[in-house]
Sequence to fold (177 residues):
Amino acid sequence: MVILKRKICLLGTFAVGKTSLAQRFVNDRFGDKYLTTVGISVSKKQMPPVRSQRTGETVQHTLLIWDIAGLEKFDTVAMNYFRGSSGALAVGDLTRPETVEGLETIIDKYLSVNPDTPLVIIGNKRDLINDRKAVASGYRRLAADLGSELILTSAKTGERVADAFHFLSRKIELIDD
Fold:
């Protein structure tokens, strides 16, 4: 079995649910109390073994999940946090469509450091919206512009959270050397 340890970044503006997504994925829990991330928080999650789409070997990913504070406060520091990342989940808040604009800026900065890494767009807080087609249109456009996947999640209910991390880990495995 091949063991792959990879750093991934959670990108997004203030209060889009990056920390909640990480906590739901790593610890399968959700807290209603909002605590802002100061600087960075790193979590680790060992994924179940899967058959490599590229080599056919059994691979097991260990993800080091870097939850980076909203870049409004830590812009210069965050660029250094991006270094060495194998991929990113770019998170926006479906209840605040304007977060897609901030996400575009953050993605541009991330890609300037890691131009050839996989990226998955996340529309979070799916449980709080009724008309997901209308709300997610900006995120759909962004994903299409980047040739990326859009996954709508809810950190609160757990809906599609694991799918997003698994999807990114498979994309990373496909390009690994």
Q: What stands out?
A: The mean pLDDT is 88. The radius of gyration is 15 Å. The chain has six helices and seven strands. Residues 99-113 form the longest helix (15 residues).
